[in-house]
Amino acid sequence: MKQLTKKWGKSLGIYLALMIIFPFVMPDEYYRSVGIIIGLQAIVAIGLCLVMGLAGQISLGQASFWGIGAYTSAVLTTKFGLTPLVGLVASAIVPAVFAFILGRAIAGLQGYYLAMATLAFGYIVQIGIQEWEPVTGGASGMISIPQVPFFGGSELSMYYLIWGIVTCVLLFSLNLMHSRIGRAFRAIHKSEVAATSMGIDVRKFKLNAFVVSGMFAGISGGLYAHYMGILDPQPFGMHESIKFLTMVVIGGMTSIWGALIGTLVIGFISEGLVMLSEVVPGLQGDVDTIVFGGILVLIVMFMPEGLVPRIRSLYEKAQAKKAAANAEQRVERKAAI
């Protein structure tokens, strides 16, 4: 943690300050709800970043784990009368178990085959939610999902609860990234053959990343269910998986901060499209999917490393030029003396 504070102290300070003051700068309930949804998406995106950026796996079914977590907590609290706390614990465990099973099944797949397998899993989960009507409510969904009793369950308290969890997930992921396990993940991402030759159990580390990612998505899904109070299968399909993928790619697949920044960028773009659709009715529907797909293609073509690594690279180059200029000035002063 000391190394983490030294490396990311300023970034963490700015993040915490912005997170704390946002509800007071934007006191409107609508913008607070937008902040809550962005926080929930950030938890999923950070988990996906661990899978894609560190373990080098492509996942097109992240929304399925989100949905499993949401419906797990919703079913336990509405059908069986358990408390939301128990439901949230289960919403972390059940998707992690599904991720473990799926991870073991697809451990030998790579590239397009891996992407197609996760895509197929996403479709299976969405169809299962729709067809298992006695439990999930099918296409009609579920209602009367109890709120999390956190300081009364107000919009402001939910905002701080969710962003508090985002902060915990962020710190855990940053610490993991700079640990021995994180170094193993980065070695796998660069070259599985080289990592194997160094004695790293590639399959084990990939599976661990997949399980942690599924757990994060499940926690977010459980919180989403209790925040919304209602559920239907629509948010847990391919559209949302593409959205999560776009968040990670925009921010930078190898950067945990990138996943958070990418979530904020996509969140603001989504809200902009919603506001624009009120003025231009023709933009209603699945236009956001086209926009996100276009952004994804452009980022891959022109800035494959993502926003945060690109900004960091430009900053380091500027600092190097500044240091070189200062050194040159010192040499000139000495020569003048």
Automatic annotation (TrEMBL):
Annotated organism of origin: Brevibacillus centrosporus
One Pfam family it belongs to: BPD_transp_2
CDD domains: TM_PBP1_LivM_like
Listed InterPro entries: ABC_transp_permease, LivM-like
GO molecular function terms listed in the Swiss-Prot or TrEMBL record: branched-chain amino acid transmembrane transporter activity
Gene Ontology terms: cellular component: plasma membrane
Keyword Cytoplasm: no
Name used for this protein in its record: Amino acid/amide ABC transporter membrane protein 2, HAAT family
Principal location class: membrane
Residues passing through the membrane, by range: 33-56, 88-107, 112-129, 158-177, 244-269, 289-308
Transmembrane keyword on record: yes
Keywords for the protein's UniProt record, in alphabetical order: Cell membrane, Membrane, Transmembrane, Transmembrane helix
Subcellular location field: Cell membrane
Membrane topology per record: Multi-pass membrane protein
